Inverse folding.
């Protein structure tokens, strides 16, 4: 019968040193002013329909979650990610990386300027296409509030066919993944506005990818 106990003495745990205590965190200083504007991260302007994307991050009781890091990533307007694993035969845009982040304000509000992403094919089955969407990641203030999800655009004909969309069984929860066109967020002569609130936990929570 082989021995199952550890063969070596335990490694002593040393108290965290100054490096760990002062190391980088997702603090205010890390987020630059250009991080929220995905159309100004390169020398030129990206192609596509410019949009403003804004909403509030709320907890289960409807209270704003302030100072929250909101990260987004998305395909360009042709439906291609600036990532080496994306081999979709659509053009890359040298003026668009497709990643942004910002902190929520005192009202729990986030704000991004970007371009509307294009649809792209994926190999789930023949002729499977992802509808235009923006990926979101939020950490929340507690472990149970960690949220990774996707925002969809209203009225897109591809959305009802999307397997990831359909994986959310509850139609009401599914509907919470769709932004609303909001003329009040339009920037005149510049961009179209979309409003999307995110609820981190509770019965009206925004559906997350996978399980929490
Ligand atoms: Fe995607």
């Amino acid at each position: 019968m082989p021995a199952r106990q550890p063969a070596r003495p335990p490694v002593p745990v040393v108290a965290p040193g100054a490096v760990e205590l002062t190391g980088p965190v997702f603090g205010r200083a890390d987020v630059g002013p250009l991080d929220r504007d995905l159309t100004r991260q390169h020398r030129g302007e990206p192609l596509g329909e410019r949009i403003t994307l804004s909403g509030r991050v709320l907890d289960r009781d409807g209270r704003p979650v302030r100072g929250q890091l909101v990260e987004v990533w998305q395909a360009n307007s042709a439906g291609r990610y600036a990532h080496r694993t994306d081999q979709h035969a659509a053009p890359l845009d040298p003026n668009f990386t497709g990643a942004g982040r910002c902190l929520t304000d005192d009202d729990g509000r986030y704000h991004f300027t970007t371009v509307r992403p294009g649809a792209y094919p994926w190999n789930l089955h023949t002729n499977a296409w992802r509808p235009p969407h923006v990926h979101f990641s939020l950490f929340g203030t507690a472990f149970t509030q960690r949220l990774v999800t996707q925002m969809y655009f209203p009225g897109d004909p591809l959305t009802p066919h999307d397997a990831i969309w359909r994986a959310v069984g509850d139609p009401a929860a599914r509907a919470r993944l769709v932004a609303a066109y909001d003329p009040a967020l339009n920037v005149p002569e510049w961009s179209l506005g979309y409003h999307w609130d995110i609820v981190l936990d509770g019965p009206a929570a925004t559906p997350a990818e996978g399980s929490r």
User: Anything to note?
Assistant: Residues 18-22 form the longest helix (5 residues). Residues 27-199 form a domain with the Protocatechuate 3,4-Dioxygenase, subunit A fold (CATH 2.60.130.10). The longest strand covers residues 50-58.
